User: What shape does this take?
Amino acid sequence: MVDLPSELNDLPRDLNHLPRDVFSRIAKEICPYDNPQQAAVNLANLKATNHEILDKFPDSAIGSFEARLSRIGALQSSLASKTLPDFTAGDVKFVTLQAPAIQPILKFYELSAQTSIVDNALLCDERWQRTLAATVLSTNLNDLHDPSDRTRLINQALSSFGDDDPTIRTNGGIALVRADGHLDAVQQARLTELFHRNPELEQQYNHLKADQQAWYQQQRVQLPSADLDRSINIIAGEVGRLPAGLSSFEERNTAHIVAKSIAECYNCAHNELMNFDRSRERSTLGR
Assistant: This one.
């Protein structure tokens, strides 16, 4: 018996005459932007509902999205197997090479794998390593499926921002700036207390916030082609040329750029799916 998301339980059993626009809306509701793996699982469950649903996938917007998702997921899996085949708690290589390489595709990992990554990042013995890990992963707080993983990274950033070491303090501040909007009431109170005890921290925080806004602009990804399917093909070649394992910052940076492109391909595919009906409506109105 296939377990279906709750929104599928109300579907009529006779789906021969289910309009395609209704089918499209159902499919879009079960494809979360921040969880590609769950989107794939939900689509597979939807297809398994009955033959009438299955028949609606070919030559449809949702069928196109599913095909792209399958290819993009395969690219993510291949890149991950090369850059993060395994990792060890407290390993400097994990913090400095592996985590930065896979950071853009963190949302592709299932919850347990994400938690394991956060666990290993925060189990480092050295404060600078824990801080660096929190800084790297703070870019992906929206992508973490378990709120407790997000909480732990922010708590590490808060501890680091109050550190006496200038480098640790700066990296902790960067992580906090990236976590803006994610702090709960307790964490916000801790940050306010840090500012109260040391007004210079608030000045540093504001400077870092301005710097990060410029940094975010620089992180925008330009896919290799205006055609999304062609971009996926090109990126597949880039993944294939990546070495197995990371041994240098140059290899890390290359893998990171490819990972950003994979994530952007998913974002573009998802946006096309979400905007499909609206684009068709605008086309109809323009006739």
Observations:
- Residues 151 and 184 are 8 Å apart (CA to CA).
- The chain has 13 helices and no strands.
- Confidence is low (pLDDT under 50) at residues 281-287.
- The first helix runs from residue 20 to 29.
